[in-house]
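Help wanted!
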Amino acid sequence: MLINCAAYQEGQKLADIPQEAISDYVQRPDCFVWVALKDPEAGELEEMREEFGLHELAVEDARNGHQRPKIEEYGDMLFVVMHLLEMDANEQIRIGEIDVFVGANYVLSLRSRSNISFLNVRDRCEREPHLLKFGSGFVLYALMDAVVDRYFPVINALEQELEQIEDGMFTKESSARDNIEALYALKRKLTVVQHSTTPLLETVHKLFGGRVPQVCVGMHEYYRDIYDHLERIVKQIEALRDVLNTAIQVNLSLISIDDSAITKKFAAYGALFAMPTMIAGVYGMNFDMMPELKWAYGYPLALASMVAMDILLWRRFRKAGWI
Amino acid sequence: MLINCAAYQEGQKLADIPQEAISDYVQRPDCFVWVALKDPEAGELEEMREEFGLHELAVEDARNGHQRPKIEEYGDMLFVVMHLLEMDANEQIRIGEIDVFVGANYVLSLRSRSNISFLNVRDRCEREPHLLKFGSGFVLYALMDAVVDRYFPVINALEQELEQIEDGMFTKESSARDNIEALYALKRKLTVVQHSTTPLLETVHKLFGGRVPQVCVGMHEYYRDIYDHLERIVKQIEALRDVLNTAIQVNLSLISIDDSAITKKFAAYGALFAMPTMIAGVYGMNFDMMPELKWAYGYPLALASMVAMDILLWRRFRKAGWI
Amino acid sequence: MLINCAAYQEGQKLADIPQEAISDYVQRPDCFVWVALKDPEAGELEEMREEFGLHELAVEDARNGHQRPKIEEYGDMLFVVMHLLEMDANEQIRIGEIDVFVGANYVLSLRSRSNISFLNVRDRCEREPHLLKFGSGFVLYALMDAVVDRYFPVINALEQELEQIEDGMFTKESSARDNIEALYALKRKLTVVQHSTTPLLETVHKLFGGRVPQVCVGMHEYYRDIYDHLERIVKQIEALRDVLNTAIQVNLSLISIDDSAITKKFAAYGALFAMPTMIAGVYGMNFDMMPELKWAYGYPLALASMVAMDILLWRRFRKAGWI
Amino acid sequence: MLINCAAYQEGQKLADIPQEAISDYVQRPDCFVWVALKDPEAGELEEMREEFGLHELAVEDARNGHQRPKIEEYGDMLFVVMHLLEMDANEQIRIGEIDVFVGANYVLSLRSRSNISFLNVRDRCEREPHLLKFGSGFVLYALMDAVVDRYFPVINALEQELEQIEDGMFTKESSARDNIEALYALKRKLTVVQHSTTPLLETVHKLFGGRVPQVCVGMHEYYRDIYDHLERIVKQIEALRDVLNTAIQVNLSLISIDDSAITKKFAAYGALFAMPTMIAGVYGMNFDMMPELKWAYGYPLALASMVAMDILLWRRFRKAGWI
Amino acid sequence: MLINCAAYQEGQKLADIPQEAISDYVQRPDCFVWVALKDPEAGELEEMREEFGLHELAVEDARNGHQRPKIEEYGDMLFVVMHLLEMDANEQIRIGEIDVFVGANYVLSLRSRSNISFLNVRDRCEREPHLLKFGSGFVLYALMDAVVDRYFPVINALEQELEQIEDGMFTKESSARDNIEALYALKRKLTVVQHSTTPLLETVHKLFGGRVPQVCVGMHEYYRDIYDHLERIVKQIEALRDVLNTAIQVNLSLISIDDSAITKKFAAYGALFAMPTMIAGVYGMNFDMMPELKWAYGYPLALASMVAMDILLWRRFRKAGWI
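Answered by r_m:
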């Protein structure tokens, strides 16, 4: 579905143009076309391939979707794949994808499986004509910047999730089983986020370090800034993973400690039953000569001694922290 | 066993040729021969070595089989070893091997221990004469692309296997012992797949980055595309391994939790027995003066108190989640 | 909040200057201005941006705060971000930030969320005019040196914390639950410190190895010295992490050992009850012909045998280390 | 002990020569001497040092023995240290060492603490005069190839050992204690093999990649082949280690599972005793009014109810898989 | 404290010289001064700084002590920091430090917190005038060689310690608690040794690979030899660490196994008590009609059946390996 299609010159928007006019504008030097598609169909992609003269392999990747984040050069064209991450209402991560084709005088962005809109990126670019003069390279920067900035709330949500689990773990407010399930689910999410961000970090480097693609020339500081943001995200993820792995180990220790506490508790209560049972057994013996049995206060004394010894035991267990 | 033997020129098939004619066609410039063998015998290999003038060490590797995936240059010739992976009916992985010798005007592929056919690769090449014009380098690309594409279903099968185990783990539908055996078996399979794919990733780089073998010149984007697919596979495997290791740890926690639950359950039931036994012990004592024993309702009261206390205990244990 | 604003020439302080005069002094060759701000507001930052002509992206980073430690070049300007670490009264780590903009003839430092003062750095610089002649590059060195030196007491505090936990672990002075919570909290702190220091180590290298920014030229040994201190810190952290991970594992073993000891203890005491109960049970049987029951000393003998066997058992358990 | 000492020219053996004649032959261009010693004594080593003019430090290493595998250049001379691995009758690994000094026209090999003979290497070389023409560089290749080929059976033995342990683990044919001891012993052996092979892999690279020592020039493919074999070995070891680490974790899970199963079993049997004991306790009470006691069938009914309830319990436990 | 101060020329000792004469001798070409201090005080250090013209930062490092091992160049001067490791009588590791300043014609060594003497290094140098001709570079080599050689006995002591723990672990000669404490202590020591040796390995490389400091020129093989020894040490440590980590895991398994064995044992003995108690309970019931009670041999038969069933159970438990 075509979202937007406009031509720009000297940092100013010329006009919204019809799809058929694209190839005309692409010819004009000092002018570039910016097209945005959403969940494009095979037919639309094929038209775009012809209008812009895109490389077969890149278009095939875009058609198949589910690529790893990457930046590839096909001659003068850049093909950029990024993941779009959202937290849905159930705290699950939704992964969308944005594929961007960037040439000297065009930017074509294809957004798939995501509701994240990039209209504000277009607004920002049009508000900053002194930067938009850089042409398609600045549009790519603005798109990447917007994508990467959306990663931060996702990471922060995962960090909060971990903190909640930690609280539950140490205060015993949640069961060990719930904790371990939550830790595992978090690990799964982290793995997803990591595989959306780490490859992008690795690949962004080629936009500002060493030999740089033609469209990115002169924008060194801007792409380095994206790299810097990505690195922060990636390091946050690594730290989270590290802490998470420790949390899983620690949780196992906590389970063992609880287990041990319950064993003690039950064993202690067992002793409270076993003691009177033993005394009762003694006075249940059938010896002819058991003087206590004849005493008037034998029975109450026996009962009293049972209770007394249980109280004694109970106190000791209490003191030892077992009950 | 000779599967196929044909000569190509200018991207078009010239003819199926007999084995003896190979050396004639190999002489002709602008022409290349494409030979496919299956489970070749020592004699066939020796003939091929002579027809194409292959290097002794490469042929020895092909004869021995069970090589690691690799790409080696012997002068102008490329020697490529790849693994062929299939899931058999019992969800076990079968590892075959394809060895490819590529020279300026020949491609010789040897397939061993595998039923994966590459006839469709030949079809594809013959349908794309504008690419087949690249010569043997494109055939190599098409073969590699086909091999690598077959890895995806295997990885996906392993991912599904993991998800099934996870479901069983958390829903208690399968026993802890089955889970741990399944996790271990999955680890074993992952190790196999990893050792079939990771070395290939490392070695494919030399076909498009930096100095490139003569036969691959001009196909930069195509070999990079294979690298990209392989990287996706390798990263998926790494993610799987990582999750799998966590799953093994988590499973241990779940075992401890279950163990603890059962300990509690038994201890609770033990108390339900111990309580009446203690009371019965008391009234089994032989004191002369035990007024309760004379009461008409002593016995039913004693029984009632046993039942009442057990109900009380049972409720408490129930509330605590132990029973 | 403006803390300090002064101009220097030839290693000597010229004068404290008003904020408006900054741009005048910055023009003069052989002279540099050193401005220190604390928790700067947006307006102050904007003024500074204009006075010094700072790059938009760097100022934006400073405005947002919470950056990773880094050193970035914007043309001739260096932008340095460092974390300030303090242990507060509750042994928690407080993270502040210092952002430094360094040009050929200015140093602008912005300190945020921290009470660590850098007045002593200014004193030191003014006491060493032969070094201050190096200009803004030496001021940057002096600031970095001061920041890095503050990391050592934090690391040492964490090392002591680990040693205390270790003592508690092996002497059983603290509970397993406290130990595991303390180990986890320490892990968390270590992660924080690591993410404040490791990125700085990686980035400091560019101030003395290979091509060096203009302001740092000739100060090779000084920046290498900072690198050396940072490396010591980073390696100490790594060693701590490593030992900490082992401590968490070891603690799990200790929990298991204690658990096992308690199981033994309770089982042993259980036997001390079960033995007399069994004997009492035997003499509670109602057989007509039980000669012992008629003996005058039957009862005391039975009691004695109970006690004797319990003493025997108790000794054996004692010897085996179970009680 | 001198094993062998011969001179070669143009790929042909000239003659077995006495030790004293070595220095004469070493002078002659196009001719090289190949000497093999076994467990050499200090005196022999000293003689060789003089005959060949070996470097002091290399000779000292050879004298001390127990070196890490390495390849060092001393001017034109290569000094190669490799480990010789054998499985002895008790499935223990014996580590021997072979030190090789290679110059333009000599090869001196010193074998220590090993029964692996290299006579077949000499035979192979003499059977392939077209390769032996390469001179001492080919002899070195042939020796290294022979050493590396002997590593494969050792690795395979370790793989089989792991598979046996796995079988025992999952079929319960061997005890948990035996499994864990076997896994640990295997880990130890793997560590030994790894430290014999990995350093060699790292160092072999210098014989075919980049600048190559003079004696190895022109043998690129051959040394790369050794590298390839070594890499296969090293990767096999890494895979083994990885699986082994998982096996140790899995074994711990299996121990926990078994432990849990036994706890259940005993607790279940405990209930089978506790139930009749409780009933017997009830009918052992001394109330005057217990009508059941008067019934003619009271006793058999009581016994029957005990048995019946135990059968009931037994069935439930059986069904739950606890007995 | 000044230990030694002598001047050398052409590989020969000229004379012991007074401290004040140092600067005179340092001027003379082809002559070098070798000074050794032990636990130097601030004053001594300051004098040396002036005599030799040492760099401020290096002297400050030496004054502070507790540096990481490192090799730094200050202009033509080398500043080398190494750790001195000793095992004291309690098998604890004592860490001393030796700081060496090396210039074209001087060597100044400062030894701190260690009793390891280097007089034998001076002896060795004076016995090898043909090497001592290399000047201060050879003295540095000899010192480093001596320091590194002292690491071997420390590593070997740690290896033996591990082997002792292993023996205790598998033979049950030592308690699980002692094992785990010993393993942890060993881990601690290994961490110490690793942080004394690994940084040195990394830094030694600059003395023989690539561009080499002036004083080390021509001694390539000698410094590489030190590197080789250090690498052996570092790899031994890594192997030890790896085995140690496994040992800690294995020990946890062994604890679980023992725990399980004791659970079985106690449960089995529990059954041996529970069985007679149950039978006694049955014959303690007060039914009027219990024919066995009337039999003359009822009592002995009951006792006999108790004993018989216990023997039966005992045998079964014995067979199952539980007792």
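OP: Thanks! One thing I noticed: Residues 86 and 94 of chain C are 5 Å apart (CA to CA).
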